[in-house]
Amino acid sequence: MRKTILTILGLLLIVASFFIAKLLIDNKNKVKPIAPKVVKVIFADTVKNSTIPIVIPANGNLTAKRRFELYAEVEGIFKPGSVLFKPGQEYRKGQTLIRIEDSEYYATVQSAKSDLYNAIAAIMADLRLDFPEVYPKWDAYLRSFDLNKATPKLPEMTSEKENYFITGRSIVSNYYNVKNLEQRLSKYIITTPFNGILTEALVNEGTLIRSGQKLGTFIDPSVYEMEVAISKSFASLLQVGETVALNNLEGTETYTGKVSRVNGSVDPNTQTIQVYIEVKHDNLKEGMYLEANVDARDEENAIQIDRNLLLETKEIFVVRDSVLDVIPVKPIHFSDTKVVLKDVPDGSVIVSRPIQGGYAGMLVKVFNEQNN
Question: Signal peptide position in this chain (predicted)?
């Protein structure tokens, strides 16, 4: 019985092997279907070289062109004035910004002026006797001397004898001592150098001000400057007085500025040069962030395309007889989204939109809007 079962299983195995072998032979002889050629539809443009203006985008914050940092050079109590010392307060030229208590120092100045007056008065009798020719001018000086006004300049000494006589009585040294004290006395009052507005106030009336302390910031709000960094390769192309288009971040406001200064040195770290753009407008405020478009130069016989169309090998795709190919190009200038190219022959059909998986030799068909 066991022998019979093994015989039957052997026959079944032989029959199965025969059918499997026949199936494999039949599949091997089947003709494989030919894959249809896929033609990719692309967008393309015909090249026509022209003059491309190279515009350098830049941005920065506005700073008042005339800016006055307020620092104290003397010490004392901040006396209240007719106008509050607060941010946003407007002042006219020559108006008092800060007045510091100076009564003690004023007394010192008056004492020194009195000593000078007494020293000159003490030599008048000797001048009348020994130097009658110079006596009238010193007498006139003494008569014009007013303790409540600035000390007038000493009369000019015309001879060595007069010079030795006056200097020997310490008149000259006393005079310059008084002028030094008067100069320091003037620092107790800070006045505005121009019409403007206070943008920062770091002290209040009644507080003690110390020497060297920063008090605030005063600006002229009529003229602003924006500092931008430009590549050194364009340094020779920028000229003072060149017009610059400016706009805010939202793009809702546009302004016209001009290049007021160009720095003469290149930043060694960034290899950029600082350019200062002057702009005037009633809507502008210090600290505003603006974008600028600086016209650097016009590039002749060039084209401008999207940056993502330029391959890493500095080549671009062209279409020749419905076949994709590449040609080498010369990039001249890169912006955020565009690139200016040269050495692209007129009449070349270049790809105008990126092709996913594109390669040289790919069959393509140029999309024609008129036929669709």
Answer: none
